[in-house]
Amino acid sequence: MAAKDSSPVVRLRDVTKAYGTGAAKAQVLRGVSFDIDKGELIALVGQSGSGKSTLLNIIGGLDRPDAGEVEVMGIDTQKASDRTLAELRNRKMGFVFQAFNLLDHLNVLQNVTLPSSFSQQTKHSEIDDRGREALRKVGLSDFAHRKPGELSGGQKQRVAIARALFGSPELLLCDEPTGNLDSDTGREVIDFFRELNAKDGVTLLIVTHERRISSVAKRVIAMRDGMLVETTDEALAVAGNGGPHA
User: How confident is the model at residue 120 (pLDDT cuts 50, 70, 90)?
Assistant: First the structure.
């Protein structure tokens, strides 16, 4: 287990978020506060609509809260410019989504190196080398020139993970990463996340309905009606008393 840093990777205090106005206004987050320390592997569970994905997007700087404090690796995301947030996402964070989000007209290596389009790097050889190293980590070294349409669902998710790892992130944010995978492939992805955390010290926050992810997490946090249930025992109860769905 990685040693704790004195400063949390993520710090949230009284974060609120609502969508809509008037009678249609929906309060999604209600005063959420918690820290994520360096080297943690956290499963964030809860019923659909409980605010999990909204919280993930706010931590990743893809959305902004209505009120509260959000610090990611020492940066106050409320006060940061769009450029600063973009640099934070590109250099220190990785994202993995349920839908893979691969571009069909690009080959696997081009999909993995896509984040370089948003950076100042100009050495194509260096970019390709880093992309191939990311593919090696997920066991797809021989698939660099294939198109996404030639891959299985599990292979597509591995490409998405390789893309997330391209920038050597300190924090990996995952939204239902096994949701489109069969049981065996999902288990392989879970094992990879656990190895990435244990060997490389990457901090992971995984939104999931998958009980197996909860079982390997170092901490389980549940959401209910936009609020957190912070103790592991209570969180597991919210996740379904050991069942497959939150």
Answer: low
